[in-house]
Amino acid sequence: MDDYAFFHDVTKKINVPVIMMSLDGARSVVMKAINQGVCDYWINSSNSNDFDVDEPNASFAPPTKKPCLKWCDELHHQFVKVVTQVGLDGIINS
Known about the structure:
The protein contains four helices and two strands; from the N terminus they run H-E-H-E-H-H. By secondary structure, it is mostly helical. It has a single domain (3-46, 68-91), classed as 3-Layer(aba) Sandwich (Rossmann fold). Strands 1-2 form a two-stranded parallel ribbon. Helix 2 links the parallel strand 1 (19-22) and strand 2 (40-43). The radius of gyration is 24 Å and the shape is elongated. Keywords: Transcription, Transcription regulation, Two-component regulatory system. This is Response regulatory domain-containing protein. InterPro entries: ARR-like.
């Protein structure tokens, strides 16, 4: 089974979006992948030698977690006050 047959089977049987990444950016290759069910095609222009997997990057810092919003009584009362002032017609986009 080649890559294109695999993409076709995955998108038909499992119904998951498939993104293909390749060094080949030829229009015919991209269109063949799209026609076989790939939802997006990314052209990878980087060389595998660009990545040093053995040594950790000291400058990389994991993203900090955003604080969670805790729904409290005060926030609920503010929400109800705004909805009362604006009305449901002002809140719902039509």
